[in-house]
């Protein structure tokens, strides 16, 4: 049975290879993969260079964004002269509050996403940023009301809140673009399992250099023939050699795909990665049906992956219906005044039943032509 299953897997790989057409990588991001640190530098760099680089870069981006926001508020509204503040005192208060802002952002996990996920974007940060900025401004407002020494006006706090929601995400976008072109952002990645799933993951990594993952190789006791796109990626050994492979090749990230070694071998891989302080991603079983809305929960200590049925809730249905009605109403308001009387339409009514000809359902029909003319007339104004 195992031999037959292995033969089927090899046949699937061969069939896929015959239909393979290589994907051309983008010219702008190809240099990220081509960049390599010299060998003597690799041996001396710390293992978590990417983790340190990303965290420090995002902290710098947030500090600069907060400072720029503070400067804009100062330029727009001036100093709080009626509260007895000078620009120097406001600057000192701002500098004292910056560590509090960074601590609040850390509580919301705004410096961990890039470490845990390769495809993190600033859009993923927006709602945590929104909550952190809102809570921070609210705490500043409460503090200003509880003390007689500091009193920030509502106008300044509201303006600071609004500008921070725009400038903080923009600063993070610019910083992410910058750090993803650095060699230190590259993370040497090892894939455990050279089967169909492991090779598919490797191909996706190859096609998306912006992830910053540099393939070091595969680990598998019984690897399948490699896809032509992965012909230059070596199989470095078996799972028994994982610890030595991680140390000798400077691996920082391990992805555990499916292997034929059984459940216990997978647990050994997880334990080895924990002992070596290496980041680990695990491909779940039934991954074909696991979407982005899947959530982990537990049943008396047993982790479960919950999948909600794709059904619209009552609130979503109401929102969808409201959008449909508003859209139709807007269309009538815009188009209805354009209907005029004519010989075929003396009452200036829409003819939905085809009384004006047999081609009323085609683009040559009088109604379709009339609507097109109306839209052209509106667009030309």
Walk me through this protein's architecture.
With about 375 residues, the protein is of the alpha/beta class. The protein has three domains: about 50-180, no CATH class; about 185-305, Rossmann fold; about 315-380, no CATH class. Helices cover about 50% and strands about 10% of the residues. The chain has 13 helices and seven strands. The strands form two sheets. Strands 3-2-1-4-5 form a five-stranded parallel beta sheet, sandwiched between helices. A two-stranded antiparallel sheet has the order 6-7. Helix 4 packs antiparallel against helix 5 (about 85-105) and helix 4 packs antiparallel against helix 8. The longest helix has 29 residues, at about 50-75.
Order of H and E elements:
HHHHHHHHEHEEHEHEEEHH
Low-confidence stretches: 16-45
Query: How would you sum up the global shape?
Result: flat
Mean pLDDT: 75
Give the strand line-up of the largest sheet.
3-2-1-4-5
Q: What gyration radius follows from the Cα positions, in whole Å?
A: 30 Å
End-to-end distance, in Å? Answer: 73 Å
Helix content: 40-55%
Q: Which structural class best describes the helix and strand composition?
A: alpha/beta
Overall number of strands: 7
Assess the beta-strand content as a share of residues. Answer: 5-15%
Q: Tally the structural domains.
A: 3
Number of helices: 13
Largest sheet descriptor: 5 strands, parallel
